[in-house]
């Protein structure tokens, strides 16, 4: 009983009403936005991805049928506000960029070849994005990296293009202003 009470106090909202995410199939992945703590992503077993705001129990944006397989992981880009990723069980990686399209992924790519197994037994099971950080004493950012965990125990690390990776340090102020405008647009869906 004490453990259950402790769990309830950890999960209880901090004074405000917390949203109950309604509808859809089983939730398979969640990730809060590092650029706006009130936004979070939900990946689902039916292959859909939704973007939620803490003040709203309905999705701000919903991407149905992103893939035909269940989503196993969603992740926000730490270096690019408005960019997030979804990985499905069949090793399909999708990239979303809210500045380029709010209707569909800007990239959909099968990663099956990374496993090296023609029969498809080895597949991508998880992903991680490198933290956004500039190189000390320079005006350029470190390259953005995408690490992919494979079902055979290997890890494959890739450099992301500038388009989906990290902006140059001098462009970050401009990017922050652009993100604030996009965030106001998204928050208008809540009102």
Topology:
Blueprint: H1 2-11, E1 27-32, E2 39-44, E3 49-53, E4 61-63, E5 71-76, E6 83-88, E7 92-97, E8 107-110, H2 112-115, E9 124-129, E10 145-150, E11 155-159, H3 172-188
Antiparallel strand pairs: 1-2, 2-3, 3-4, 5-6, 6-7, 7-8, 9-10, 10-11
Low-confidence stretches: 1-13, 135-139
**SSE-based structural type:** alpha+beta
- Beta-strand content bin: 25-35%
Overall number of strands: 11
Radius of gyration: 18 Å
**Given the structure, what is the number of helices?**
3
**What is the mean predicted local confidence, pLDDT?**
80
The helix fraction, in percent, is 10-25%
Summarize the main sheet: 4 strands, antiparallel
Q: Order of strands side by side in the largest beta sheet?
A: 1-2-3-4
Query: Order of helices and strands, N to C?
Result: HEEEEEEEEHEEEH
What is the CA–CA distance across the termini? Answer: 40 Å
The shape, in one word, is globular
Folded structure, characterized:
The structure is a single chain. This protein has 191 residues and is an alpha+beta fold. The chain contains three helices and eleven strands; from the N terminus they run αββββββββαβββα. The chain has helices at 2-11, 112-115, 172-188, and strands spanning 27-32, 39-44, 49-53, 61-63, 71-76, 83-88, 92-97, 107-110, 124-129, 145-150, 155-159. The chain has a four-stranded antiparallel β-sheet with strand order 1-2-3-4, with no helix packed on it. The chain starts with a helix and ends with a helix. Residues 1-13 and 135-139 have low confidence and may be disordered.
